[in-house]
C-alpha cells in the first residue's frame, strides 16, 4: 500500500499498487477500529492480498491477508520518510500498465532493503532512483562516450540532460558550455537552460552501470566510499527528477529529516 488518508472516525482511503489493476483507490470502512480484522494487513507500506468489491466507480475492501508488513519502516521516522518517497514515485510511474509487475517487485525489494537496513540508506535511495528511471525508458548510456562514441577513460562527466557519459576529450571541447558541477547554484544562471553535468569518479561510473543492469534482488549489493556515494546520490536524484520534470513533497520531507 502506497498511501493512506484517514476519513471520518474509523475509515481510510487507501492508495494501493495492485498487480492487476495498477494504482487504485480503495475505501476501507471501519479499518481504524481496533476490532477490525484487517487492521494489521491494511496498514501503510504493507504487502497484502486484498479481496475487493466494486460499487460504482469505487473499490471497497472486503478482506485482506498480510504477506509482509515491513515493520522496520514504521519504527524509524527517516525510514518511514524514505519509504513514503519511494511509494510516491511508484504511484507516479505505475500508470503504465505493462510495467506494473516490474515496479511492484522493485518497490517491494526497496522497502525490504530500507526496512532491514540491507545497505546505506543513501545508496538504496539512489540505486532505486536510477533503476526506476531506467525501467521507464530513461536508461542512460554508460558504456561509451555519448558524444564521440569513444572509450571512457578515468575522467568522465555524467550528462543529466542527455542521459549519458562524456569522455575527457569531449568535455574539454564543451568547456565553453555553462557548466554546473554537483550543484545548480545561482551563480550559474548566465544561461536560461544550464547544462547539468557532474564530474564522476570511476567508482561512480561502475555503480551506475551496476544499478541499471543488476538482477532485481541484487540491486543494493554493492559498496561505495563516502565521497563517491555523495556524488552517486546527487547524480541519481537529479537524473530522476530532471527526467520526470517534477519534485516530490515526500522527498522534501525526507530531506528535512536527514539534512
Ligand atoms: Zn568523447
Quickly describe the structure.
Helices cover 38% and strands 24% of the residues.
Could you outline the blueprint of secondary structure elements for this entry?
Blueprint: E1 3-7, E2 11-18, E3 22-28, E4 47-55, E5 58-68, H1 77-93, H2 100-115, H3 121-138, E6 141-145, E7 156-159, E8 164-166, H4 168-173, E9 179-181, E10 195-200, H5 202-213, H6 226-244, H7 249-258
Parallel strand pairs: 3-5, 6-8, 9-10
Antiparallel strand pairs: 1-2, 2-3, 4-5, 7-8, 7-10
Helix pairs in contact: 1-2, 1-3, 1-7, 2-3, 3-6, 5-6
This protein binds zinc ion.
The site of zinc ion has 8 residues, from helix 4.
Tell me what the structure shows.
- This protein has 259 residues and is of the alpha/beta class.
- The chain contains 7 helices and 10 strands.
- The strands form 2 sheets. A 5-stranded mixed sheet has the order 1-2-3-5-4. Strands 6-8-7-10-9 form a 5-stranded mixed sheet.
- Strand 4 (47-55) and strand 5 (58-68) form a beta hairpin.
- The structure holds zinc ion (ZN).
- Residues 145, 147-148, 150, 166-167, 169-170 line the site of zinc ion.
Amino acid at each position: 500500500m502506497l498511501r493512506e488518508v484517514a476519513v471520518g472516525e474509523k475509515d481510510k482511503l487507501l492508495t494501493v499498487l495492485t498487480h492487476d489493476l495498477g494504482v487504485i483507490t480503495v475505501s476501507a470502512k471501519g479499518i481504524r477500529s481496533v476490532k477490525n480484522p484487517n487492521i494489521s494487513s491494511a496498514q501503510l507500506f504493507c504487502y497484502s492480498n486484498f479481496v475487493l468489491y466494486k460499487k460504482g466507480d469505487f473499490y471497497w475492501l472486503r478482506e485482506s491477508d498480510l504477506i509482509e508488513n515491513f515493520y522496520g519502516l514504521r519504527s524509524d521516522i527517516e525510514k518511514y520518510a524514505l519509504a513514503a518517497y519511494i511509494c510516491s514515485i511508484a504511484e507516479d510511474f505505475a500508470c503504465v500498465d505493462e510495467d506494473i509487475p516490474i515496479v511492484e517487485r522493485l518497490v517491494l525489494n526497496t522497502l525490504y532493503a530500507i526496512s532491514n537496513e540491507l545497505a546505506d540508506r543513501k545508496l538504496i535511495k539512489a540505486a532505486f532512483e536510477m533503476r526506476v528511471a531506467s525501467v521507464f525508458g530513461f536508461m542512460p548510456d554508460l558504456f561509451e562516450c555519448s558524444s564521440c562514441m569513444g572509450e571512457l577513460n578515468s575522467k568522465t562527466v555524467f550528462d543529466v540532460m542527455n542521459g549519458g557519459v562524456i569522455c575527457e576529450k569531449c568535455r574539454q571541447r564543451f568547456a565553453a558550455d555553462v557548466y554546473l558541477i554537483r550543484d545548480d547554484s545561482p551563480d550559474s544562471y548566465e544561461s536560461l537552460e544550464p547544462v547539468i553535468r557532474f564530474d564522476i569518479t570511476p567508482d561512480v561510473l561502475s555503480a551506475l552501470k551496476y544499478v541499471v543492469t543488476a538482477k532485481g534482488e541484487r540491486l543494493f549489493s554493492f559498496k561505495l566510499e563516502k565521497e563517491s556515494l555523495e556524488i552517486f546520490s546527487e547524480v541519481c536524484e537529479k537524473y530522476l527528477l530532471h527526467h520526470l520534470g517534477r519534485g516530490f513533497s515526500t522527498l522534501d520531507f525526507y530531506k528535512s529529516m536527514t539534512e
